[in-house]
TrEMBL record:
Keywords: Oxidoreductase. CDD domains: SDR_c. The lineage of its organism: Bacteria, Bacillati, Bacillota, Bacilli, Lactobacillales. Coiled coil: none annotated. One of its GO terms (biological process) is bile acid metabolic process. PROSITE patterns: ADH_SHORT (PS00061). This is Short-chain dehydrogenase reductase SDR.
Length: 244
């Protein structure tokens, strides 16, 4: 149980971010659901009525340094400490490489890669002051074993894995762990539209991953894997070891 622990999850208004938030709540943690979408406050209320910990929504934009800092300041004012951070906010344009525009590429990099960078930088500064902390970034299986059409997204997610390794080494001696989880074929509101159905035959387990399943991996890496840092953990139904 994670009673008296505090977790923040970005991109928490839906999908994997919401599922991670609920898993932390199930395990007794206090949870801050952060998202640029104001509906996150109502989403948080749906969890607050089901679990014992303090669960709140926070409107925060990972593309804005001031918004990130204000959010972290608010968490510290309300809770006094922050144990776990899940940098999950993201998205991107999926097109064949030569069809990507500068705007497609830049917007994907700014949200996924720079957004994670901005959050990590502020979170690490906070963790250095309090003397501990665990960060888990959201990667993507598709950036390692990709089905095509993911040039900008792959660039961002591979960058996140690289930043995870760099920060892990820089702050391992400061009681700060930094890891990454790369979900497999997970059905969420962001990837509806037939994409998953085309990729499903490549999954040895022959099914989708649920958001609730991968959420357990995030919470384990954040809270239980206390000698793990700098790693990217694949939760992929066997894709990375199967030949299809």
């Amino acid at each position: 149980m994670l009673k008296d622990k505090v977790a923040m999850v970005t991109g928490a208004a839906q999908g994997i971010g919401f599922a991670i938030s609920e898993e932390f709540a199930k395990q007794g943690a206090d949870v801050v659901l952060a998202d640029y979408n104001p509906k996150v406050t109502d989403v948080a209320k749906t969890l607050a009525g089901k679990y014992d910990g303090k669960i709140v929504g926070l409107v925060m934009n990972v593309m804005d340094n001031d918004s990130i800092q204000a959010g972290l300041d608010q968490i510290m004012a309300d809770f006094g400490h922050l144990d776990y951070v899940m940098n999950n906010a993201g998205g991107g344009t999926l097109k064949p490489f030569a069809e990507l525009t500068d705007k497609d590429f830049d917007s994907t990099i700014d949200l996924d890669l720079r957004g994670t960078f901005r959050c990590m930088r502020a979170e690490i500064k906070l963790f250095l002051k309090q003397g501990f902390g665990s960060i888990v970034n959201t990667g993507a299986l598709g950036s390692i074993y990709n089905p095509g059409g993911m040039g900008a997204y792959n660039a961002a997610k591979n960058g996140i894995m690289g930043m995870t390794q760099a920060a892990a080494v820089d702050y391992a001696a400061d009681n700060i762990r930094v890891n990454c989880v790369a979900p497999g074929l997970t059905k969420t509101p962001l990837n509806d539209g037939g994409f998953l159905e085309k990729i499903l035959p490549t999954v040895p387990m022959k099914r989708y991953e649920t958001a609730a399943e991968v959420a357990k991996v995030f919470v384990f890496v954040a809270s239980e894997a206390t000698f793990m840092t700098g790693q990217t953990i694949l939760s992929d139904g066997g894709v990375s070891v199967g030949l299809k």
